[in-house]
Amino acid sequence: MKTLDELAREKCVLQPTDKTTFQRKARILQSLWRKEQGYDAGIHRGQRLGSSLPMPWARETLANYLNDAIRQVIREEVLDPDSSREKFFKPPRIFDNLLSSQPLAFNLFAVLSRDMSLATRVFLQLTDGRCQRVTKIEFEHSPGRGMKEYLDDHSAFDVYVEFVGPSGKGFIGVEVKYHEDLQNEPSRHHDRYDEVAAAMGCFLPSSLARLREKPLQQIWRDHMLAGAQLLHGDFKDGFFVLISPKDNAACNDAVADYGNCLSSTKTFHHWTLEGVVAGIKQATSEQWILDFEDRYLNFAKVDRLLG
Predict the structure, then answer these.
(1) How far apart are CA 70 and CA 67, in angstroms?
(2) Total domains, the chain
(3) pLDDT single digits (tens) 246-262
(4) What pLDDT digit, counting tens, does each position of 267-301 carry?
């Protein structure tokens, strides 16, 4: 029987940055997927890293993406200089990092972004009818990047959905997490955050200092970006969703802590990645969602190797 660290070392993914069992398993799972595809491992600090792909090959082939349809969306959204202007896609991570949540977001939502009928079926179910017809899906979207009337910073949603619902035009701002533990140092606080938080009226005053710190600040900023859009846009409905795997305990704990800072959850929701995948699978039987589930969520592969 192997230990998790022994298996990680064998798969060239024993990294000191992985602090949790979930992080270690997720990195191993991506190395297994890469090997199954017949792809070489990338190099990190002079050593092979099984959870990455070699550059510039990864950029040339877009091998981090599950099929040709998704790769075409990457060409249109990321590689096209006009489409990607003022958007913070992160090379080389978006090409070579198998764990990165930015490629994951494209692998999960790119097909939906080009099929509004499918997207409608999916989000109708995920929102219990709050979203009745999807009209647009964008990536790395901010309604007012750097604008003082929004957050006066460069916050953006990983995925942005506009829809028509029972009360009219609405939107969903989505942040996707996979391997992350939300322990990055918080960004510089802006006075505008306090103004938007007060206007939204859903934060407990006693929690505002806590919201400025890790692991909550990123969730708070994204939630407030949705709130700012509701305050300044022509939308009748709108909310922020954090998506993360059900076994990512760090994200679960942060969400629970964040919920304790709220007086209302109307504009904040947490969906598990497994739940989103299940919703898509109910709407379509296309191979790409099965491939997605196998790549990102089939942790039984790791458990079998542990014995």
Answers:
(1) 6
(2) 1
(3) 999 999 999 999 999 99
(4) 999 999 999 999 999 999 999 999 999 999 999 99
Give me the domain span that covers residue 266. Answer: 4-306
Pairing assessment for the beta strands 168-176 and 237-244 based on DSSP bridges? parallel
**For residue 141, what are the β-bridge partners?**
157
Q: Identify the CA nearest to 8 among candidates 108, 94, 100, 99.
A: 99
pTM over 0.90: yes
Q: Looking at the predicted structure, is the pLDDT value of residue 74 above 90?
A: yes
Neighbours of 146 (CB within 10 A): 12
Alpha helices in the chain (DSSP H): 4-10, 21-37, 57-61, 68-74, 81-84, 93-96, 101-113, 116-126, 191-200, 208-211, 217-232, 249-259, 273-283, 287-297, 300-306
Distance CA 79, CA 218 (A): 27
- pLDDT tier for residue 87 given thresholds of 50, 70 and 90: confident
